[in-house]
From TrEMBL:
Motif (DGA/G) on chain: 173-175
Motif placement: GXSXG: 46-50
Active site: 48 (nucleophile), 173 (proton acceptor)
Keyword Transmembrane: no
Name under which the protein is recorded: Predicted phospholipase, patatin/cPLA2 family
UniProt organism field: Brevibacterium aurantiacum
Gene Ontology MF annotations: hydrolase activity
Domain PNPLA: 15-186
Biological processes per GO annotation: lipid catabolic process
Keyword Lipid metabolism included in the entry's annotation: yes
Keyword entries, A-Z: Hydrolase, Lipid degradation, Lipid metabolism
Gene3D superfamilies given in the database record: Cytosolic phospholipase A2 catalytic domain
PROSITE patterns in UniProt: PNPLA
InterPro entries in alphabetical order: Acyl_Trfase/lysoPLipase, DUF6363, PNPLA_dom, YjjU-like
């Protein structure tokens, strides 16, 4: 931990954001709280919607963190059945990630601030053909387009959004990978033993198996590794959460888990999304003193 004017750099703890579509309207409140508190983590990972939270955090843009999962849902190009019928996805991912973030666009991304932040980043996606994870870092994103296409790939929900073709590979949502959508194993491989983990499901949540496996295998017959990953994700996800709560019990993790999650991954009702964000802000602010104590970054 290194203290600088107005900020505290956290070097010994990994910050991990789970995905969950529009449930990130709530966890974006944690992004805002961390930024306002001046807690700067040296290593930040995100998968799916968690990748958006991660890059918004690294750009230092609290306003964009909220807008990404609240106001932006009202944009007529955000998605819907019309876009799905055109093959653009229930969420219009090319627009959301690769166009709207440009200068003078609907949701501009502060690329200069992102670049000037010395913290490292990990974004994880899933190779639909090989069944392998891909882990991207800053060296893979020298330009804003390189970053945004990878955030899009990490966030591409199978069947609901077209896969991303990049560098000869076909990528979908990183939640299909080894930890089911929470980048714990990657952080551990890189030597971290302390973690702040931002979840998008309540503590009592347990994922259940898909009810019609033959349907999913047929749906993804072109990508059988993806079909199997989707069908087995529930087990990997539940096991990862068990590991997380065990680390918490050992004093090695501070876990933010929503006390109540009032929205679903596809929610677009602005009043519900705004209410979820307020819940996230309130809970993260209440938990901030305990997080500071865990990090050894108490205010004087």
């Amino acid at each position: 931990m290194i203290e600088t004017t107005g900020t505290t750099r956290i070097s010994d703890t990994a910050l991990i954001f789970e995905g969950g579509g529009m449930r990130a309207s709530l966890t974006s409140g944690m992004v805002v709280t961390l930024l306002n508190a001046g807690l700067d983590f040296d290593w930040v990972a995100g998968i799916s919607a968690g990748a958006s939270n991660a890059v918004n955090y690294l750009s230092g843009d609290a306003r964009r963190a909220r807008r990404s999962f609240v106001e932006f849902a009202a944009d007529e190009q955000f998605g819907g059945l019309r876009y799905f019928a055109r093959g653009q996805g229930m969420f219009n991912a090319e627009y959301i990630y690769q166009k709207a973030g440009g200068p003078e666009e609907a949701l501009p991304f502060d690329w200069e601030s992102f670049q000037s932040n010395p913290s490292d980043m990990r974004i994880i996606a899933f190779d639909a053909e090989s069944g392998d994870e891909v882990v991207w870092s800053r060296k893979d994103t020298p330009h804003i387009d390189d970053l945004m296409v990878r955030v899009r790939a990490s966030s591409t929900m199978p069947a609901l959004m077209p896969p991303v073709h990049l560098d000869g590979h076909v990528y979908v949502d990183g939640a299909m990978g080894e930890d089911g959508g929470i980048a714990l194993s990657q952080a551990q491989r890189e030597g971290f033993e302390k973690f702040v983990i931002v979840l998008t499901q309540e503590r009592s949540y347990r994922k259940v198996p898909q009810r019609f496996p033959a349907v999913y295998r047929s749906m993804f017959r072109r990508y059988p590794a993806l079909g199997e990953a989707l069908l087995t994700r529930w087990a990997r996800y539940n096991e990862t959460r068990e590991r997380i709560f065990a680390l918490e019990a050992e004093g090695k993790a501070h876990v933010f888990a929503p006390e109540r999650m009032p929205v679903e991954n596809g929610t677009r009702d602005l009043s519900r999304l705004a209410a979820a964000h307020r819940l996230g802000l309130s809970q993260s602010r209440r938990e901030l003193p305990a997080m500071r104590e865990f990090l050894g970054a108490e205010t004087v």
